[in-house]
Amino acid sequence: MGYNKSMLKSFSYRLYPTAEQQSLLARTFGSVRFVYNRLLEYRNKAYERRKESRNYYDCNAFLRKLKDIYPWLRDVNSQSLQMANKNLDTAFRNFFRNPGKTGYPTFKKRCARQSFQCPQNVKVDYKAATVYLPKIGWIDCVFHRRFKGDVKTVTVVLEPSGKYYVRILVENGICKAGTDRKLPTSLDDVLGIDMGVKTLAVCSDGTEYQNNRHLANSERKLKVLQRRVARKKKGSSNRKKAIKKLARCHEKIRNQRDDTIEKTTADIVNKNHVAVCVEDLNTKGMMHNHRLAKAISDASFSRFLARLEQKCIEHGTLFIKVPRFYASSKLCSNCGYIYKDLTLSEREWKCPVCNVVHDRDRNGSVNIQKKGYEMMTIPVDGGKSTPVKTNMVDDRANAPKKPNVEKAGIVLENTTQEAPCL
Ligand SMILES: [Zn+2]
Q1: CA 62 to CA 27: how far, in whole Å?
Q2: pLDDT band, very low/low/confident/very high, at 314 (cuts 50, 70, 90)
Q3: Which residue in 193, 197, 150 sits closest to 169, CA to CA?
Q4: How confident is residue 381, by pLDDT bands cut at 50, 70 and 90?
Q5: Options 2.30.29, 1.25.40, 3.30.420, 3.40.50; which CATH number does 187-387 get?
Q6: Which candidate in 279, 298, 309, 359 is catalytic?
Q7: pLDDT at 174
């Protein structure tokens, strides 16, 4: 058992390209987007007209034709164009693997976030604070921290706010080995977490983490900025400026939200419990409830859970998802009575059987804690529990996909911490 799955970690650094480099980057973003969209069109048409599907290799052949028709495609890093094909292929694979959850690949828009990948020949110079990208050169970069591990992909991103970033995805082996993993021996070893709308997370030990509701706070500002964009003439440079301001506001909200998530998850993991249990929330289903949808997307539950899981793995803590339809807030954590008529607006309720007054979320977190503990143990000798070793983490979603030979073979020069390129 244990976490044998590879640990991927992403590091993001702000880039400060010169005006000249910006135009080179713009050309790469544009070409990659162009190739992606043309290949998607190629696949769509092949299906519409002849009911045929085109695979990665067909697309590669078509990409070569595109280069003959549009010679300017040869001016940019050809590997980045190749990656566009690869990414489109991945998008299709994900769609066919999980058609209900993953959407059909869509065309990339000029106004959205732009990105391209460099699979090879990226160099990092920590001392000079620069990153080398093929066909573009050394770009100023702020390394707020060093990255560790084997580099998998390097992605250059231009946010709609006008900020450039380089995102380095690394694989590192810092997760603790799973064979001698400790299992909880008492309920106190387990921390139950109830995710909520009013409070971001309530823990079974009584700690509460407030949801800062950044989006709600900035909503007025967003509305003003949105109205300003709407009032500007389409295609005008004033409209472009207004769009940029709006994008900056969105980016700030996202950063604030991520900050809350990082701090909260770090705090939870640092409590040093043997296991952390959460409810396997049906966030997609909850999104259909419009009153809840906004608050949930604001708190970005799924992102929170993903970060919590990753931090647990790094820390050597078990991460357990308690089944979704387990009625955690309706069950009295003291006597087991189920209060069927509990409504969403009821924050507190009194158990009619044992008379204990429950705070809705706190009660839920204790139930999650108990359920999680139960899942890790099997009863023997008339109720006495004994830990049992099983695979605790439901990692179907993160299950290793088909080995990606091409990706696994990526070797970057001089990008390790030990030997930055000079
Ligand atoms: Zn009760």
Answers
A1: 20
A2: confident
A3: 150
A4: very low
A5: 3.30.420
A6: 279
A7: 57
